[in-house]
């Protein structure tokens, strides 16, 4: 490793350090900054020219005396040490241990800035993943290799839902559970402790790699954390042939850190002050998931983001929706009614669901049951709106049945406890219990064979 050391720091602002007259420095190189107390801070080159180099300092630039600052360019990218021992460990956004255990010692080190998969090497995501949550498994199924985000908002239980998915996710016909890479950005100490205790008490912590950035940690560290997590996921999936589930929370904190750094750099802002390259930056992260031809392993990505002001048209959820294959939307109204998980059925969808359900994956009636539940619930919501205008007493007997279905659907199908792990068979049987409150002739999305086999009034 060759290194170059300079004492020409010219300015420090917002976690960014400018060093003048430093030629031949590569974008993305690691940097060590030694301050006036002799302490070392870590950095990464984010802009380079012969006139000056711009460095993002992960520990921040506060109390940095420029005249006494030495900057050492290491001529190597930011890397992470990889070995099977990363499972069960907790790291920060720089890949350093947060669990008071020794660092990983390995000859294998990889740059966190790996390229997205070659499209020609990809294979189509398929194979149903059972999360044990009926609203996901039954209506918005997750398949292996998919990117399926959770759109939440402040005060909603997305952390509890993410922890439940981590505990319960598995392939129904495979005895092996997913290895999990969990990346938390900008979380409170209470949330970080919640995740750690949840995983430890359920016995899955030994199969989880955690990367945690606290709310009071440097924001720029959030820019490397998801890349650290995905590099670890790629190692587990394609070196060790594991199925890997990557859960990231909260991508809104990542985007806000990106905006903060972009503003300090002087980049031209776009929508709501976020940089114009927010889309490509998010895509660079999300597209590192998927499946590769002739490889057993896979990476399935579930990013969690909180929508500012509950606005689904905000740039972060809006751009995420373009890149990913659907979304699970949480409802404040259902949450206020005490329903967990408060999944808002109408705007939620999984675009790859059709490729992971049915006879060869779940059960032959699954696609039709899902369509029928959507149709009945949509009609029931229209009826509920009508009742709020004219009163429930003015409704017809048929419309009252739809109202009863909506209440039963939300309280029996949507609602379940945090420790309730429903199999896909249990979810589909519960769906038929609800469908059986209607006469067979009212069910137009399921076929006669399925009605004869599963409809309670026809059995």
From TrEMBL:
- Annotated ATPase F1/V1/A1 complex alpha/beta subunit N-terminal domain ranges read 14-72
Query: Which GO-annotated molecular functions does the record name?
Result: ATP binding; proton-transporting ATP synthase activity, rotational mechanism
Occurrences of domain ATPase F1/V1/A1 complex alpha/beta subunit nucleotide-binding (ranges): 132-350
Q: Which GO terms describe its biological process?
A: proton motive force-driven plasma membrane ATP synthesis
CDD domains with a match to the protein in the record: ATP-synt_V_A-type_beta_C (cd18112), ATP-synt_V_A-type_beta_N (cd18118), V_A-ATPase_B (cd01135)
**Domain ATP synthase A/B type C-terminal, which positions?**
355-454
Instruction: Enumerate the UniProt keywords alphabetically.
Output: ATP synthesis, Hydrogen ion transport, Ion transport, Transport
Identify the domain of life.
Bacteria
Task: Provide an example Pfam family for this protein.
Answer: ATP-synt_ab
What is the recorded function of this protein according to its Swiss-Prot or TrEMBL entry? Produces ATP from ADP in the presence of a proton gradient across the membrane. The V-type beta chain is a regulatory subunit.
**Which family is this sequence assigned to?**
Belongs to the ATPase alpha/beta chains family. T3SS ATPase subfamily.
Report what the protein is called.
V-type ATP synthase beta chain
- Organismal lineage: Bacteria, Pseudomonadati, Pseudomonadota, Gammaproteobacteria, Chromatiales
């Amino acid at each position: 490793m060759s290194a170059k050391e300079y004492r020409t720091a010219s300015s420090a602002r917002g976690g960014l350090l400018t060093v003048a007259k430093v030629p031949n420095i590569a974008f993305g190189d690691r940097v060590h900054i030694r301050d006036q107390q002799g302490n070392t801070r870590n950095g990464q080159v984010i802009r380079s020219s012969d006139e000056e180099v711009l460095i993002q300092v992960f520990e921040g630039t506060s109390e940095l005396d420029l005249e006494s600052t030495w900057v050492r360019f290491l001529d190597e990218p930011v890397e992470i040490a990889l070995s099977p021992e990363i499972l069960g460990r907790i790291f920060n956004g720089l890949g350093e241990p947060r669990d008071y255990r020794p660092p990983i010692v390995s000859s294998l080190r990889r740059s966190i800035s790996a390229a997205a998969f070659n499209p020609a090497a990809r294979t189509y995501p398929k194979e149903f993943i059972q999360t044990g949550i009926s609203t996901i498994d039954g209506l918005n199924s997750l398949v292996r290799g998919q990117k399926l985000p959770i759109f939440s908002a402040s005060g909603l239980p997305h952390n509890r839902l993410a922890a439940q998915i981590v505990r319960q996710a598995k392939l129904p016909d495979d005895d092996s559970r997913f290895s999990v890479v969990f990346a938390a950005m900008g979380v409170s100490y209470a949330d970080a402790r919640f995740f750690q205790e949840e995983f430890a008490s359920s016995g899955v912590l030994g199969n989880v790699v955690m990367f945690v950035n606290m709310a009071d940690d440097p924001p720029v560290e959030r820019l490397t954390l998801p890349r650290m997590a995905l590099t670890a996921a790629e190692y587990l999936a394609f070196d060790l042939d594991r199925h890997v589930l990557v859960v990231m929370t909260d991508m809104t904190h990542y985007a806000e850190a990106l905006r903060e750094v972009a503003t300090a750099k002087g980049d031209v802002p776009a929508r709501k002050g976020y940089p114009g390259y927010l889309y490509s930056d998010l895509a660079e992260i999300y597209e590192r998931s998927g499946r590769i031809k002739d490889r057993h392993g896979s990476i399935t990505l579930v990013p969690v983001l909180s929508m500012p002001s509950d606005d689904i048209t905000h740039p972060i959820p809006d751009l995420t929706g373009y890149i990913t294959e659907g979304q699970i939307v949480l409802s404040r109204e259902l949450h206020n009614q005490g329903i967990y998980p408060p999944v808002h059925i109408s705007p939620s969808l999984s675009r790859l669901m059709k490729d992971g359900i049915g006879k060869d994956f779940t059960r032959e009636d699954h696609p039709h049951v899902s369509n029928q539940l959507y149709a009945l619930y949509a009609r029931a919501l229209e009826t509920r709106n009508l009742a709020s205008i004219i009163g429930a007493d003015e409704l017809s007997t048929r419309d009252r049945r739809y109202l009863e279905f909506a209440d039963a659907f939300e309280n029996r199908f949507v609602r379940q406890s945090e420790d309730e792990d429903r199999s896909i068979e249990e979810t589909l049987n519960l769906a038929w219990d609800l469908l059986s409150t209607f006469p067979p002739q009212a069910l137009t999305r399921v076929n006669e064979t399925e009605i004869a086999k599963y409809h309670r009034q026809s059995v």
